[in-house]
Design brief:
single chain; 407 residues; mainly beta; 16-stranded antiparallel β-barrel; 1 helix; disordered N terminus
Amino acid sequence: MNTRLSSIPGLALAALGCLARPAHAQPAVEARLGVALDAVEAGAFEAETRGTIEGSFAPELGFASQHGRVYYHLDGGTYASPGDWSFLSHAVGASYRLDLNDGEGTRLYLGGSGASRRNGDAWSEADYDALTAFANLELRTAPTMTLRTGYGLAQRWFAEIAELDQLEQDVFASLNVNLRTRTTLIAESHVGWKTYAGETLRVALPPLAPSSVSPDSGRGRGSMGPVARSTLVTEVPVGSTGEQARQWNLLLRVAQGVGERTGIWAQGFARCTGGRVPPTIVATPSGFFDDGVYDDPFASDLNALAGGFKHLFAGGFEVQATGSWQEKAFTNAVALDAAGLPLPGDPLREDRITRGGVRLSLPALASESGVSSLALALQYGYTRSHSNDAFYDYRSHALGLALTFSR
């Protein structure tokens, strides 16, 4: 099936227009424009400094007393690197909340979305269209305890790599506990399975010089690292015919309020995979991951630790600091040397990544009601990636500046 969603912008505007009529509709919008400089030191390559510019625009409309919402998200940018590493994506979606059990803390959320992404020539293999749907149930089992469970379905079609067309399913359960000590405890687990249209391929492309992307924008992009080629495919056993790829993960998180304006948090995460492996991996700038397509979670086992704090000063000035460590073992990506050739013995790629960063946000404009706000954000990110793959063994210092607007 090669359905294309090129009309998504029109669908989004039509949906927003149709839902603008209810008397209780509540519009909102968020926008961001950011630039960054990233200095990358890779042992196998000459040190480089690269620039980035990216932005987003996301209007949203609530209706039916905020039980429903419809949104459109436009995202785009360009990454300075040999070749065309630009991107433009559209997404439109809607969800609705049903209050069950006479509104006594039981809620059912239903929704879906469509997305279309087009990239520059350097990584056009990652162009895709997608449709998703979900159903989540929320139960307030006690005044301080909330249980959630749900099911998600996603279908993606790739314009240039039909073998990567995929159907993904996911079920999850989570428990959220809020204690009187201003402590929040979260435990969440997902079980997912995925089918791919094609078998494993093998493609050998010459390597490009390392490059980088912007600091973390909060939407999944932003780890800094070198660029290999636009597509890297490795040949490995894929399992029995018709076998699905599988993954299971577990997240444990604790957050603590300290005083009136400070919060700290820490979390651990583990992911295990099994079954057949993805037929191909689209290799992009390290960290340029936003939806599980590029950094396919079915392609690697992962253990990770993370933590941070946030403080809000009087007047709205905000500071955040985060740190993380992760160990990732790939199941179908052979480690390469600086020439782009497999290492002796064809070992699979293994990464150990340490990250740290700080973000300062300064309100530039706010209405008296506090509804509209304009803020300037300055952020710094450090990454040290230890890898047996030459293209992902590097250290990076990235400095970014962004203007954000919300209403």
